[in-house]
Amino acid sequence: MLTGKQKRFLRSEAHHLKPIFQVGKIGVNDNMITQVNEALEKRELIKVSILQNCLEDKDTVAEQLQQGTGSEIVQIIGNNIVLYKESEENKQIQLP
């Protein structure tokens, strides 16, 4: 689990990031979870945007992504979810 201080730090790091995944009408599937997991391994911190036509609630989508990838939800803001997962081989972010 992340502390409040760590979440604040990650939010500031994620501020300038652009969403690299979009969740649409079909919602979250296994293929998307695999791709998000690979992106988290490379980058550690990513944004996922939820499109207007997504039938599921943003909290549900965030929950599915968190459980599927084993990541932490840093923030849900508007239609964007910020996810963090410490990389095994490619550690770049030093948490406070």
UniProtKB/TrEMBL annotation:
A Pfam family of this chain: CRS1_YhbY
Listed InterPro entries: RNA-binding_CRM (IPR001890), RNA-binding_domain (IPR051925), RNA-binding_YhbY (IPR017924), YhbY-like_sf (IPR035920)
PROSITE patterns given in the database record: CRM (PS51295)
A molecular-function term among this protein's GO annotations: RNA binding
Superkingdom per UniProt: Bacteria
Keyword terms: RNA-binding
Location of the CRM domain: 1-96
PANTHER family to which the protein is assigned, alphabetical: RNA-BINDING PROTEIN YHBY
Protein name: Ribosome assembly RNA-binding protein YhbY
Organism this protein belongs to: Ornithinibacillus caprae
